[in-house]
Amino acid sequence: MLDYLKNSNTIFVTSLIEDLNSRSRGKGLIELLSESPKDIDIYKKIKEKPEFYFELSGESFSELTNQVRWQKWGQTNFFIEVTTTGRNFSKNVLDNLFTNQVIKTRLEGLFPGINLNQYVMLRKWVCLHPMAL
């Protein structure tokens, strides 16, 4: 596994270190990689494509050993990635939408005669990944 890591990019190695140190994912990941170090490829696939965990029980994944062991970790990772993306969206887009006077002025220009202060602005949005439906 060390040779694999030496040939990997810095972003991947940093992500692996963060996950190994994570309170929610670290212990499980350490157990998975300790039992089968060659499963680093499964970890990499899950990190590159979080929805890959949906495929872990599919026939296309059957050639990989230990796929069932990775389902739980993959599901946890998927949930964390999706919720983190949602929080970042809220932080960077929605919060700015409500505090940016330029945007508010443009909206009022698009809808003349409407007082935006009379409306309740919802801050939470729910977005579903197509694979979760």
Structural write-up:
This protein is an all-alpha fold. The protein has one domain (2-132). 59% of the residues lie in helices and 0% in strands. It has 6 helices and no strands. It has helices at 2-6, 10-21, 26-35, 40-48, 67-99, 101-110. Helix 2 crosses helix 3 and helix 4 packs parallel to helix 5. The longest helix has 33 residues, at 67-99. The radius of gyration is 21 Å and the shape is elongated.
Characteristic terms for this protein:
133 residues, mainly alpha, 59% helix, 0% strand, elongated
Which stretches of 5+ consecutive residues score pLDDT under 50?
none
| Backbone CA Rg | 21 Å
Report how far apart the termini are: 36 Å
| Assembly state | single chain
Largest sheet: none
Strand % is under 5%
Structural class: mainly alpha
Mean pLDDT: 78
Our count of domains comes out at 1
Question: Helicity range of the residues?
Answer: 55-70%
The tally of beta strands, per DSSP, is 0
Tally of contiguous helical segments? 6
Write the layout of secondary structure elements.
Layout: H1 2-6, H2 10-21, H3 26-35, H4 40-48, H5 67-99, H6 101-110
Quick gist of this model?
This protein has 133 residues and is mainly α.
